[in-house]
Specification:
The complex is a heterodimer. By secondary structure, chain A is an alpha/beta fold. Chain A has 2 domains: 4-230, P-loop containing nucleotide triphosphate hydrolases (Rossmann fold, 3-Layer(aba) Sandwich), CATH 3.40.50; 237-311, Alpha-Beta Plaits. Chain A is built from 11 helices and 14 strands. Chain A has helices at 48-55, 77-83, 100-110, 115-128, 144-155, 174-189, 201-207, 225-230, 247-252, 280-287, 303-314, and strands at residues 4-17, 20-33, 37-41, 63-68, 71-72, 84-88, 162-166, 193-197, 210-215, 218-223, 236-244, 257-263, 268-275, 291-298. In chain A, the strands form 3 sheets. Chain A has a 6-stranded mixed beta sheet with strand order 6-7-8-3-9-10, sandwiched between helices. In chain A, strands 2-1-4-5 form a 4-stranded antiparallel beta sheet, covered by helices on one side. The longest helix of chain A has 16 residues, at 174-189. Chain B contains 11 helices and no strands. In chain B, helix 3 (54-84) crosses helix 10 (205-214), helix 7 (136-161) runs antiparallel to helix 10 and helix 10 runs antiparallel to helix 11 (222-254). Chain B has one domain (35-45, 53-254). The chains are: A alpha/beta, B mainly alpha. Chain A binds chain B through residues 15-16, 50, 53, 56-60, 77-78, 81-82, 86, 88, 90, 92-98, 101-102, 105-107, 109-112, 118, 154, 158, and chain B through 7-9, 12-13, 15-17, 21, 84-86, 88-95, 100, 252-256.
């Protein structure tokens, strides 16, 4: 049985605005086990960052309880801060005039790393995140991906037991995002518990042991990615390749739900859609009125499909 | 702890956040600009009431310019922290916020020290306001006491500025109040009693009177004035400590207290 490192019970947070109270978190409860990569997914304004800010002790809850490593986020914030760290996505949070190495030295001092240990620690961390060759470059010259990796290196200075990553791959190119995902896996393998928020479903599916969907301050679904996908197995999702004669007519047709048409080389298209109860032969014969069906198959439910379905359901 | 070395906190804070990173800028803003500043007030006063009053105004402005330098640069460092999004990372670290603020004050203090020394030199070379050599010890004591009181006030000011999205407006307002009420260009004894009381609870007022007395322009007892300046500095320091503590709690409670710009 794995230890619980985060315990959240009925967590509620209001923001006082001129037009009245805005509920950012509404009775949220969940827990995170040691060594897990736990994903918090939801649309903008769902409450992900508020949750992370409360758990990193930067924000107080309005009501409810949250414990990190068995410590109360309200009364034991300093002890929590000694054992956690966080990374917010984007290019902010760096001193552009410093080199990567200088930036690390700066935070080593803030994190009270002994002077004689700083150099070895910095070399090790910059090596881990693949920035050893760029350590003497000014941060202004870093790419977004390099800045994110530098953030990760900074967040490891205090050897955290828990790491909060708030949209760490936002704005990164595919190669930069992959490097970062590999890094998250490496950290997870080293036993660090990771709380991850992201908008990228494939990333969450790849990295997370468990996922919570959050919307309007409430958690709608929580579980392992495979469980979440299985919970949507009743959905009849199909994809088809067609040589299409009547593109507009198909797009206006109401027979299929959530129809997506990706135009390939004319006249070929790739279709994704959902049906309630039609059999494959019925679907094929229906589609034939718009062109020639080259291939039709039932599609495996992806996390994105489950997210769209469950979040729509939650709304 | 404040020792400046390549990877030390002070040097890195300077490199990361300080406005003047080149010799050219430093000469422009730390020598040319104060000369122009002193010239402006000296010519204004000389034209209005004669050159007898020139030493009074130059000395007042040297102290005032030093204070401005420290406050502006202190504020600018925090403004950059907010712009870069690094303030939150600093505050979330295990180092107490007040200690971070104090350590970041080292560079503005060194800068202020330079501006003060250059100011006395400019006063002597250009305006003929010569420092009595037997008073160098007193000037040193005055300098230390004044830096303490200005730093204490700047700490409070830095914390307060975090509450405002437009730091520049707040800073300019404070600098104008200092220029008017600290006796930079005229004696605070000329102010109505209520305003004189206000002037005397500001840092710098007593230091300016003491500096003028060291130069023999006014005839107050120096050490009682410096004692009052020290006391005022302590009061601001205590208020700053309380304020930092309250502000940290309020920031966690409200979530948006530290306005980002």
């Amino acid at each position: 049985m794995l230890d619980i490192v985060i315990e959240v019970k009925n967590l509620t947070r209001f923001y006082k605005l001129k037009e009245g109270n805005k509920i950012a978190l509404d009775n949220v409860s969940f827990d995170v086990k040691q060594g897990e990569v736990f994903g918090l997914l939801g649309p903008n304004g769902a409450g992900k960052t508020t949750t992370i800010k409360i758990l990193t002790t930067l924000l107080l809850p309005t009501a409810g309880e949250a414990k990190v490593l068995g410590l109360d986020v309200v009364t034991e914030s300093q002890k929590i801060r000694d054992n956690i760290n966080f990374v917010y996505g984007g290019e902010r949070g760096v001193y552009g005039r410093l080199t990567g190495k200088e930036y690390m030295y700066y935070f080593c001092t803030l994190y009270k790393v002994k002077h004689r240990e700083q150099q070895a620690l910095i070399e090790r961390l910059l090596d881990l995140v693949g920035l050893k060759d760029a350590e003497n470059q000014i941060i202004h010259t870093y790419s977004k991906g390099m800045i994110q990796r530098l953030h990760i290196a900074r967040s490891l200075i205090n050897e955290p037991k828990l790491l909060f990553l708030d949209e760490p791959t936002i704005g990164l190119d595919p190669v930069g995002a992959k490097l970062l995902r590999d890094l998250v896996r490496e950290l997870s393998n080293r036993g660090i518990t990771i709380i991850l928020t992201t908008h990228y479903m494939q990333e969450a599916d790849d990295l997370c042991d468990r996922i919570a969907f959050i919307r309007d301050g409430k958690i709608s679904t929580i579980g392992e990615p495979i469980q979440i996908k299985e919970s949507c197995n009743h959905l009849n999702l199909y994809e088809a390749f067609m040589s299409l004669d009547q593109t507009n007519a198909l797009q206006k047709d109401k027979m299929f739900k959530n129809l997506e048409v990706d135009e390939l080389k004319d006249p070929f298209v790739h279709l994704k859609f959902e049906t309630d109860s039609l059999a494959e032969t019925e679907i094929t014969s229906y589609l034939e009125q718009f062109g020639q069906v080259l291939k039709l198959r039932k599609r495996e439910i992806s996390l994105e499909d489950a997210y769209i379905y469950l979040m729509k359901d939650a709304g | 702890m404040f020792w400046i070395h390549k990877y030390g906190f002070t040097n890195l804070s300077y490199k990361a956040l300080y406005s003047f990173q080149s010799i050219r800028l430093f000469i422009l803003f730390r020598i040319v600009d104060p000369v122009m500043h002193y010239f402006f007030y000296a010519t204004l006063v000389s034209a209005m009431i004669g050159s007898d009053y020139l030493s009074f105004v130059v000395i007042g402005n040297i102290a005032s310019y030093t204070c401005h330098t420290i406050m502006i640069n202190f504020m600018t460092m925090f403004r950059f922290e907010r712009r870069y999004g690094t303030l939150e990372l600093n505050i979330a670290s295990p180092t107490p916020t007040l200690w971070i603020i104090i350590r970041k004050a080292v560079v503005p203090l060194l800068d202020g020290m330079f501006v003060f020394a250059i100011g006395l030199l400019i006063g002597w070379v250009i305006f003929g306001v010569a420092l009595p050599l037997n008073q160098i010890g007193n000037v040193f004591v005055l300098f230390v006491v004044t830096l303490f009181s200005i730093l204490s006030f700047s700490l409070l000011f830095a914390c307060l500025s975090l509450l405002f999205s437009n730091v520049n407006l707040f800073l300019n307002l404070a600098l104008a109040i200092f220029q008017v009420f600290c006796g930079v260009n005229f004696s605070v004894t000329l102010l109505p009693s209520g305003l004189e009381f206000f002037a005397r609870i500001l840092p710098l007022t007593h230091s300016i009177e003491a500096l003028r007395s060291i130069y023999g322009i006014e005839s107050f007892a120096i050490y009682p004035l410096l004692g009052k300046e020290l006391l005022i500095g302590f009061c601001y320091l205590i208020v700053s400590l309380l304020f930092v503590s309250v502000m940290e709690k309020a920031a966690r409670k409200r979530g948006a207290l530290l306005k980002s710009i």
